[in-house]
Design goal:
single chain, 392 residues, alpha/beta, Aspartate Aminotransferase, domain 1, Aspartate Aminotransferase, domain 2, three-stranded antiparallel sheet, binds pyridoxal-5'-phosphate
Length: 392
């Protein structure tokens, strides 16, 4: 079946249990699906845009209220929607980073933070990870000291991934923010993997900015996300234009420079809003999600030679597994090579693992039911048994 031309219909979510590491938290709610049809046209949220002509002032649909609720949801004073978490990083880097500035990231930071810094001519400096792949407050303090000593400059920002993309480990944000603030370094909490799936309170964590990803963790279409700030910082990152043009003397009202005036003007925003009540509610059932993940993780651990490389017990649903000594051994002798594993999963209706992966791979069981989690766990065990791998 085709959507149009040679574009296939996508039916991964209908046909499979999808445990793709990056897709799990971005699946739309039914309400969002309806909203995206109704608001599918270009500038569809602009029908009732009135003075002062800015996205976050529109009352119909209730975009203004959504902005207030979004700020409250992440425990910050002000929030804006942005086209992806990366655009949130960029707005903050644009505001604070000057050419040549050292900017703190971590050994587990997402590449988009690096690009946001690089675009400003800043120099990313990584806080190393500690054993267990955790970023510790001590490592942060050591790195800050070293960078200040070496460059004579205090970094203008510290980017911290609340849960990292690589291991799905939860890092001690509160303690790291406390350290950074001793040096007056503002902290941006990258909640791409946390905002919208688990409770996140930026004020409680003591951070200056919270960034979330709509399509990663808020059941919204891409590209969407949120940038939230404390009031002291909001006036900086959400500063309004002061330009008066030379020939025509035009001014541009209260358009915000870093937001390029308005950001999400149609389907991305309205679908994000339509999912929001469900998103607010679902962060309250995070423990049940961890329970489902624990079930799958414990099944994997019963397969001889299989190692959960992520923090254990799991504090997030995104999980990294090393099966070099289990499924990869089978792959070496199998006629399908590494593809035997993902093809066995696929025939059981499970999708989302990189085809051919049998060494180190990631999965994310967020949003599936208990029964589906049991089925996924059973399937891993069955594939192991069928291929002669001992299961304890
Ligand atoms: C996915 C991801 C991002 C990028 O998010 P976008 O919303 O796609 O820009 C940033 N950081 C981490 C840790 C991620 O996992």
């Amino acid at each position: 079946m085709k959507c149009a031309g040679d574009i296939d219909v996508r039916d991964v979510e209908e046909a499979y249990i999808n445990i793709d590491p990056i897709q799990a938290g971005g699946r739309l709610t039914p309400g969002a699906m309806k909203a995206l049809i109704a608001y599918c046209d270009g500038y569809s949220v602009c029908d009732n845009c009135r003075k002062p002509n800015r996205l976050d002032y529109i009352q119909k649909p209730p975009i203004d209220r959504f902005h207030r609720e979004l700020a409250e949801f992440v425990g910050m004073d002000a929030a804006r929607v942005v086209p992806g978490a990366r655009r949130g990083f960029q707005a903050v880097a644009d505001t604070y980073v000057e050419k040549g500035d050292p900017v703190l990231i971590t050994a587990l930071s997402h590449y988009t933070e690096v690009l946001a810094i690089e675009a400003r001519g800043g120099v990313p400096r990584e806080i190393p990870r500690s054993p267990g792949n955790i970023i510790t407050p001590d490592a942060a303090a050591d790195k800050i000291e070293a960078v200040v000593r070496e460059t004579g400059k205090t970094p203008p920002l510290l980017f911290l991934d609340h849960v990292d993309y690589s291991y799905g480990n939860l890092h001690p944000a509160r303690e790291i923010a406390r350290v950074a603030h001793q040096y007056d370094i503002p902290v941006l909490l990258n909640g791409a993997y946390t905002v919208g799936v688990m409770p996140v309170d930026g004020k409680d964590l003591g951070v200056d900015f919270v960034v979330g990803s709509g399509h990663k963790s808020m059941a919204a279409p891409a590209p969407s996300g949120v940038l939230a700030a404390r009031s002291e910082r909001a006036s900086e990152v959400f500063r309004t234009t002061t330009t008066r043009t030379d020939v025509t003397s035009r001014t541009f009202g209260i358009k915000e420079v870093e937001m390029m005036g308005c950001t999400l003007m149609g389907v991305t925003l309205v679908a994000m809003m339509a999912s929001f009540p469900a998103v607010k509610e679902r962060v309250g059932t995070w423990d049940a999600e961890l329970g489902n993940t624990g079930l799958v993780v414990d099944a994997l651990r019963r397969i001889s030679g299989t190692v959960i490389v992520s923090q254990y017990p799991r504090q997030h649903t995104l999980t990294r597994v090393d099966t070099t000594q289990s499924f990869d051994r089978v792959a070496a002798a199998h006629r399908k090579k590494g593809f035997f594993f993902t093809s066995a999963l696929k025939s059981r209706g499970i999708a989302g693992i990189i085809p051919g992966a049998t060494r180190v791979w990631k999965f994310n069981c967020y949003g599936i039911t208990r029964a589906q989690a049991e089925y996924v766990a059973e399937s891993f065990l069955a594939i192991a048994r069928e291929n002669g791998i001992p299961v304890s």
